[in-house]
Amino acid sequence: MKKIFFIVFLLFSCSQDEGTQEVFSQEISSSSSLDEVTTTLTAIEEIEVEQLSSFSKVLFVVDEEKSSARYLAPKVFLNSNEEIVVGETKGVSGSFELSIGECDSSDSCILIENLTISVDLMRLKSSNGIRDNAIKSKWLESELYPIATYSIEELILPNNNFDSKVDETLTGLLNIRDTDYIVPFSVSAYMDNNLVYVYGVAQIETLWFGFDPPSKFDAWNVLNPIGIEIEIVATR
C-alpha cells in the first residue's frame, strides 16, 4: 500500500483570561517544561516506512472535522506557581499541492506548492469563558482579526529514497493580526490511504504580532514563548 507524506504546520497565538476566575481547560504541573509539553502532548505513532511511486501536483484539502490547533501558555502566579494553560480550536482549513519525484540534490524530493492553512481564532476555546472573551476582545483581538494563516508558495524538501514518512523542520509565513512573521516549525507526517496526517509544534513570541503577553496586576503573568500544536488530516 502506497504512502506519502506531507509536512506542514501552522501556528497561531494565544492568551489569557481577564477575570478573577482561574479555570483551565487543561492544567499541567510546573515540573513539566514547555518544551516537554509541546513535544510529548501528542505523537504520531510508529509508522512503517515504505517507498513511494512518483506523482505530480496532487491537491490535498484539510479535513476540518479531523484537524485541530491549540496553544500552550506558561502562566506564572505571584506565589511562583506555574501552570500551562491550553486552548483549542477545530477551525482549521486550507489546501496545498504536493509532488514527489527524482531530483539532483537527493534520492528523491518533495515539492510543496500553494500552501495556505487557516485557523479560525474566534473558535478558540478553553474551559474559561472569561479568558476566551478576553482573547477575542483584548489580547488576540480576534473579533477584529478572526483568521490566522500560514502559507508557503513553493518549498522543495529532500527525501530519502521516496520514503513515506518524514520528520522535518520547515519555514513559512505566519500572519496574525495582519502581521507577517517567518516562523520555523518541527513536524512529523505520513500518508495512509490517500489521507495525509501531520503533527507539528512551534514556539512564538506575542511581541512578533504586536501585543504584550497577558498579565493581571502582577498577580499572574503569561510568559513568552507560547507553545503551538497543530494536528492536520488532509484528503486528496
Any overview of this molecule?
By secondary structure, this protein is mainly β. Helices cover 8% and strands 48% of the residues. Strand 4 (92-101) and strand 5 form a beta hairpin. It has a single domain, classed as Lipocalin, CATH 2.40.128. The chain has an eight-stranded antiparallel β-barrel. It is elongated.
Attribute tags:
Lipocalin; mainly beta; eight-stranded antiparallel beta barrel; elongated; single chain; about 240 residues
For the record, the count of structural domains works out to 1
Order of helices and strands: HEEEEEHEEEEEEE
Number of strands: 12
What is the name of the CATH class? Mainly Beta
CATH topology: Lipocalin
**How much strand?**
over 45%
Q: How much helix is in the residues?
A: under 10%
User: Ends: how far apart?
Assistant: 16 Å
Compute the CA-based radius of gyration: 19 Å
Overall, the morphology is elongated
Major sheet size, sense and barrel closure: 8 strands, antiparallel, barrel
In short:
The protein is mainly β and 236 residues long. It has helices at 34-40, 129-139; strands at residues 55-62, 68-77, 82-89, 92-101, 108-120, 147-159, 165-176, 179-192, 195-204, 215-216, 220-222, 226-235.
